[in-house]
Write a sequence for this structure.
């Protein structure tokens, strides 16, 4: 009996001792300091190299053979036709007075045909631009079509032709430019509208915006009818280059040269406004209201291009 008691006591001591040993060991595990530094990987902060700015390069839009430079009052495209690839531009304009002077548009279309068939006629340093019908609404009133036409397409009375001189707002476009502009202008013995203000009309605005955008070095406008070449000026005398250009065209074409148009007072005139922009500009007035006098004007055009050639 005593032996059993001793055995039981011995076992109890062993059990209690084991429990204390386990508790002590676990406590030591929790309180013990790490024997080595923790292995922490530090990522270095790298300042990126500044991105080099790419310089903005303005790419000039390629100009095709045809260009819409604006719209008329009735929404008809105002077309410009380009020939050559030179940096300096010579401008020819017809059809300013629409159906009244329809032959001025026709001679411009003949010029387009000539340059299309003779590309070598344009010097390398030049681009030739032809705006054949600045007043397409008035022109279509007598031709019955938009764009190129022939003389046989025209069938209009004098009264109809006079009415077709103006744009769809009844404004004389050659009285709507910013040179001595007045709201009421003069045509022969008549009073005509110069518009509400200079450049009030979309057709004249189209020319203004075009000329201020490109490097136009000279301009020729076709009118009718007086049979002569007239220099331009706007309150500052005639540019020397304009005087030369007048003589060059007149001599080659066989027209008489005039220092100015003085049959009656002109306000808001296109070529005079061009002179105000320091652009040599001349008015070529055909002899009548039906002939284009193409052979004469071909010679005049060729002489002008030779004048501006390098």
């Amino acid at each position: 009996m005593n032996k059993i008691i001793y055995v039981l006591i011995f076992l109890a001591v062993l059990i209690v001792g084991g429990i204390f040993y386990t508790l002590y060991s676990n406590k030591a595990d929790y309180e013990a300091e790490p024997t080595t530094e923790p292995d922490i990987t530090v990522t270095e902060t790298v300042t990126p190299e500044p991105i080099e700015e790419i310089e903005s390069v303005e790419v000039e839009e390629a100009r095709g053979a045809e260009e819409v430079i604006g719209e008329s009052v009735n929404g008809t495209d105002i077309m410009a036709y380009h020939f050559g690839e030179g940096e300096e531009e010579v401008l020819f304009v017809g059809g300013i007075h629409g159906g009244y002077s329809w032959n001025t548009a026709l001679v411009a279309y003949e010029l387009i045909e000539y340059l299309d068939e003779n590309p070598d006629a344009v010097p390398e340093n030049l681009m030739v631009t032809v705006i054949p019908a600045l007043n397409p609404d008035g022109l279509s009133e007598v031709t019955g079509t938009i764009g190129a036409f022939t003389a046989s397409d025209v069938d209009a009375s004098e009264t109809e032709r006079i009415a077709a001189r103006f744009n769809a707002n009844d404004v004389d476009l050659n009285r709507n430019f910013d040179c001595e502009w007045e709201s009421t202008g003069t045509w022969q013995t008549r009073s005509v509208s110069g518009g509400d203000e200079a450049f009030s009309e979309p057709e004249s605005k189209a020319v203004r915006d075009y000329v201020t955008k490109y490097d136009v070095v000279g301009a020729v406008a076709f009118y009718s009818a007086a049979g002569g070449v007239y220099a331009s000026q706007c309150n500052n005398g005639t540019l020397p280059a304009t005087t030369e250009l007048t003589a060059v065209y007149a001599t080659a074409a066989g027209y008489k040269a005039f220092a100015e148009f003085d049959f009656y007072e002109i306000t808001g005139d296109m070529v005079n406004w061009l002179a105000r922009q320091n652009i040599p500009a001349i008015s070529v007035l055909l002899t009548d209201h039906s002939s284009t006098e193409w052979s004469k004007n071909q010679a005049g055009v060729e002489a002008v291009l030779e004048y501006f050639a390098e």
